[in-house]
Amino acid sequence: MDRKSRQDAARRAIIEHLDAAIAQLSAHPELAVLGSRLAAIREIAALEQAAGRLAAGKLAAGGLAEEVQAPYRPVKSDAAGTAQDEAPEDETGKAAHDKPG
Fold first, then answer.
1. Could you tell me which residues come within 8 angstroms of residue 9 by beta carbon, excluding any fewer than 6 positions away?
2. Which of 11, 22, 43, 66 is in Cβ range 3.0-4.6 Å of 62 for a Cys bridge?
3. The model scores a pTM over 0.85
4. Where are the domains of the chain?
5. Region entry Disordered: which residue ranges (predicted)?
């Protein structure tokens, strides 16, 4: 059994275990949050398995979950930069927030 086959088998086993855990939790409404989180994890595992079949080369190194959870990089807009960095000037060239003195 090659590495890819072992990974696919492991993913199938994980998905089956998650399905069983979700089914057991459905009988306990007080654990609904845990069940929904397990369902989300199960969906990620299923996506990784499906993506592994479609693009094995691309996902071999990191996996889909790592790509989805890439670090957030905020985009600095021009409007935000001017509001924070410099005050708008009036006709005389003074910043609008400066008081005449």
1. 1
2. 66
3. no
4. 3-64
5. 67-101
Cα–Cα distance for residue pair 86/79, rounded to 1 Å: 11
DSSP for 69-88, written as a single string: TPPP-PPPPHHHHHHHH-PP
Calpha distance 80→47 (Å, rounded): 37
pLDDT, tens only, 46-55: 888 888 776 6
Task: Give the integer Cα–Cα distance in Å for 4 and 40.
Answer: 24
Separation CA 52–CA 50 (nearest Å): 5
Task: State CA 73 to chain mean position distance.
Answer: 13
Q: Helix, strand, or coil here: 95?
A: strand
Closest CA to 55 of 64, 44, 46, 42: 64
